[in-house]
Design a protein that fits this description.
The chain is of the alpha/beta class and 270 residues long. It has one domain: Spore Coat Polysaccharide Biosynthesis Protein SpsA, Chain A (Alpha-Beta Complex). Helix content is 29%, strand content 20%. It has 8 helices and 14 strands. The strands form 4 sheets. Strands 6-5-4-7-11-8-12 form a 7-stranded mixed β-sheet. Strands 1-9-10 form a 3-stranded antiparallel β-sheet, covered by helices on one side. β13 and β14 form a beta hairpin. α4 packs antiparallel against α7 and α7 crosses α8. It is globular, with a radius of gyration of 18 Å. The two termini are 35 Å apart. One of its GO terms (molecular function) is glycosyltransferase activity. This is Putative fringe glycosyltransferase. Pfam families: Fringe (PF02434). Its main location: membrane.
């Protein structure tokens, strides 16, 4: 049903890069010439997906470290009321009323609420992270400063060697039995420009994101890629400095940047 690949290398396949991507800022790959824009931390909407099961184990580390650099811009999306952490985050805990399970439906439910919360804000960038991520806020702002929020940007990093191939579940008649697309791994973090998020509104806002996830029967980060790459035809721009737990530590050279770490796994954004 789904053509999963093993863990990805540090870049996409050579053929895809040569055919579809051009040089971006700092020698990275992008699908258009990024237009530098003045970006500050106040332009960001940072969502952190968590669950009541990990509040005590993971949130204190975040609150003592990078949260202090973006406390007004960071929101925690969870599945239960928690008076203690509501106070410690100064009211930045959002109970999604989604299940506390880690299944596809629960994950898509939370991502749907995250996306709607961003759309209801006036922020220029939506950046999603998990509760075991450490975010270098300063470096994140610098990276986003190389891109224009008024253009369509889907910034992240895949963790598969080739585009994901799934069954085409669109109503017939359709010509292709399968669909292929890239998606940014949620565990590495990803960012969307406001322009792109606004284009997603008719398709994915108001809970429709969950419906799409159910239709393709895949989790939240894959559903995000399906919507953006397949439905909207907007390509993923690879930011190689995003690192996830799927990359062996020995292959990651730490450059002053974002170290994401948690119980049993560590992730970097350089």
């Amino acid at each position: 049903e789904v053509g999963w690949q093993e863990r990805a290398p540090r870049s996409l396949s050579g053929d895809y890069l040569e055919t579809n991507l051009v040089e971006g800022p700092g020698g990275g790959k992008s699908t258009a010439t990024p237009l530098p824009a003045t970006t500050s931390v106040s332009d960001l909407f940072i969502s952190v997906k968590t669950t009541v099961h990990y509040h005590q184990a993971r949130l204190p580390v975040i609150l003592k470290t990078w949260f202090q650099l973006a406390s007004q811009q960071t929101w925690f999306f969870t599945d239960s009321e928690d008076e203690e952490f509501q106070k410690r985050t100064n009211g930045h805990m959002i109970n999604t009323n989604c299940s506390s399970s880690h299944n596809r439906k629960a994950l898509c439910c939370k991502m749907s609420v995250e996306l709607d919360a961003f759309l209801d804000s006036d922020k220029k960038w939506f950046c999603h992270f998990d509760d075991d991520n450490y975010v270098n806020v300063e470096r994140l702002v610098q990276v986003l400063g190389d891109y224009n929020h008024q253009e369509d940007w889907y910034l992240g990093k895949p963790s598969i060697r080739t585009p994901l191939e799934i069954l085409n579940r669109e109503p017939k008649p359709h010509t292709k039995p399968h669909i292929t697309f890239w998606f940014a791994t949620g565990g590495a973090g990803f960012c969307l420009s406001r322009a792109l998020a606004l284009k997603m509104m008719p398709i994915a806002s108001g809970g429709r994101f969950m419906g799409i996830g159910e239709k393709i029967r895949l989790p939240d980060d894959v559903t995000m890629g399906y919507i953006i790459e397949h439905l909207l035809k907007k390509p993923l721009t690879v930011i190689d400095q995003f690192h996830s737990h799927l990359e062996p530590m020995k292959f990651i050279s730490y450059v002053q940047g974002t170290l994401k770490q948690s119980e049993g796994r560590r992730e970097y954004v350089e």
